[in-house]
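Lecture 7, part 2: worked example. A protein chain together with FE3-S4 cluster.
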Amino acid sequence: MTATVSGPQADQAPSARRGSYWITTFGCQMNKADSERMGGILEAMGYTPGNDEHTADLVLYNTCTIRDNAEQKVYSYLGRQAQRKRVNPGLTLVVAGCVAQQEGESLLRRVPELDLVMGPQHANRLEALLTRVQTGQQVVATDEHHILEDITTARRDSAVCAWVNVIYGCNEHCTYCVVPAVRGREQSRLPEAIRLEMEGLAARGFREVTLLGQNIDAYGRDLPGITAEGRRAHTLTDLLGTVHDVQGLERIRFATSHPRYFTDRLIDACADLPKLCEHFHIPFQSGDNAVLRAMARGYTVERYRRIIDRIRQRLPDAAISADVIVAFPGETDAQFRRTLELIESIGFDQVNTAAYSPRPGTPAADWPDQLPEAVKVERLQEVNALVERVAAERSARYLGRQEQVLAEGVNPRDPDQLMGRTRTNRLTFFAADPGDGRPYAPGDLVDVLIETVRPFSLSGRPLGREPVH
Ligand code: SAH
Ligand code: SF4
Ligand code: F3S
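Predicted complex, written out as structure tokens:
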């Protein structure tokens, strides 16, 4: 035993003890990535992860407002915490994310117990904002803000797969969507900063990175520079070229793609770069051109089909997933049927479905031809049943095949199994111990013989490890 605690660590120790924190995250991968960075900031400040939302000294809700039910969820959580704060004034209560941005000051009126309301663009400023809270102020941070490069190490949930933001915000004007209002204008990170982050992740043992943006195809359009051929210097395709050879990373993914901007050049790059996984998440939202026009999506069903045809020409086994909205204002039964037809004929591996929900401040919320709740429920059920059937048909192709699975962690329902994903993003379970005294571990690339297929997951027998590069 030679270790002694000395130097800066010991100097920092007294001020570093701040109690426990708890973060609950709602919504999309952007919010999950923001929460991991805010967790990192809290730990650097001296907070420790708590085991319970109802005893933690600092509680942070990172919220989502994409649909009304997402927004309402947070109010019930906040009600309970507000009660706790009345008996325990030492509790620090924070609302971050998209509801915070949308509601701002009015959240303080609704829940006066709150200490801090902060929009998504302020996530990296959490420490400065909390410092103001500690002087006894209630703080609201929702002004348009240039997102600073984060200097704190994120507290990542996984030790194998990481998210890396490449572009924040969205400049589109889809008539149903709150994201541009709550996430602000597009801000692309510089390729060097992204690569540096990925190198750091690889050095710490991460094997897979998903590059994130609400509209990732817009990457780089706010950065300066034009190439000799007259193209803009920074595009997603160029970025993939810049980061592809980061040593130690085995897989690269990106999301979310927008059919309006998705290019053949991008498909070619994905086919040519071996680490790019054969999975594309390209929301289509509706299978009817008039509905797409009303949504202001900027593409037609024909264009969408051409993109998928092109992907399948270059990458025949690629998985395609998407998002769809049913019962958009004015959607007729015939238009809804065209959405069903598109799902059936494309053969999606997975589709996230939602019934249209009017959002404050968006154009479609004020249109007179809103559909009744009963139609929403009926269409949602019908589309969900179809999505499951089509996904089951897509899963069937894996039966008897050998698939490369990146082990991510233990199956929460069976501690003897590991779970991971195929390159095409199908969740796959397999035995952790092949019986040779060398059990598999998260981070291993395992060849799995697929023996059972379900609509959205697979199970199989592990055959051996693949070398990690
Ligand atoms: N940037 C992505 C999607 C972001 S929001 C894109 O352009 O496709 C995630 C999904 O939520 C959307 O794809 C859409 O299907 C759904 N969504 C967004 N606003 C909605 C609303 N008002 N009602 C129902 N679903 C909505
Ligand atoms: Fe919303 Fe449209 Fe932007 Fe997607 S592209 S985040 S749906 S406005
Ligand atoms: Fe929700 Fe905000 Fe994401 S509204 S879907 S958390 S961008």
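The chain has a mean pLDDT of 94. The chain has three domains: 3-141, 161-397, 399-462. Keep this in mind for problem set question 3.
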